Amino acid sequence: MDDKIILIIGPSGVGKDTLLKSIKKEYKDRVNFVRRYISRIPDKNEDNFFIEESAFSILQTNNFFISSWQAHENSYGISKTSIKKGVNIISISRSKIKDFEENYEKVFTVNISVKREVLKSRLEKRGRETKVEIEKRLNRSYDKIEARNLIEFDNSFSEEESKKEFIKLLEKIINN
Ligand SMILES: Nc1ncnc2c1ncn2[C@@H]1O[C@H](COP(=O)(O)OP(=O)(O)OP(=O)(O)O)[C@@H](O)[C@H]1O
């Protein structure tokens, strides 16, 4: 099977980690859920590697990451060795799509979105950020996404419904 990279992008709080977590058990033998290195403590929806900022910069200097970025004052990275043969799913920054498209032929980018008021209520309910930080996230504006294979995914529905729709999409990509 050809290697495939499925990039998951979308604003903070849109439900990326929740969506990936919901399908993990079912797909763990068919899909590599790539864990990110993050310089903050992961919350309960995440399965990532937490490392100190100082360790992060050592890894970065030593070319450990295929892609790394800063978001909301934290560092995020994907190690080169964590991408495996077959299908890989990775939650990344929308600004880093090219890092993968330059290295892999079959890259699919799934843009997760919800309406502003849904995003607001999800961020408030999660309670990870302060009111001011939430307002900043809601007021961020986004440029047009440049991606080779861009797929839009509306995540405004219940977790159950979103999961079903996401599985449909995933099957299409895997069997494509
Ligand atoms: N379909 C859904 N229906 C209702 N609530 C949801 C849904 N999906 C996610 N949530 C809730 O919304 C909040 C944000 O979700 P999550 O942390 O998965 O977002 P994220 O996109 O991964 O954010 P970040 O990029 O900041 O890590 C969580 O509290 C989660 O429980």
From TrEMBL:
Do the record's keywords include Protein transport?
A: no
Q: Which UniProt keywords apply?
A: Transferase
Taxonomic superkingdom: Bacteria
Q: Name one Pfam family in it.
A: Guanylate_kin
Q: Which GO terms describe its cellular component?
A: cytosol
Recorded GO molecular functions are:
ribose 1,5-bisphosphate phosphokinase activity
Tell me the Gene Ontology biological-process terms attached to this UniProt entry. Answer: 5-phosphoribose 1-diphosphate biosynthetic process
Listed PROSITE patterns: GUANYLATE_KINASE_2 (PS50052)
**Which InterPro entries does the record cross-reference, listed alphabetically?**
GK/Ca_channel_bsu, Guanylate_kin-like_dom, P-loop_NTPase
Q: Where do the Guanylate kinase-like domain residues begin and end?
A: 3-175
Q: Does the keyword Chloroplast apply?
A: no
The entry's protein name is Ribose 1,5-bisphosphate phosphokinase
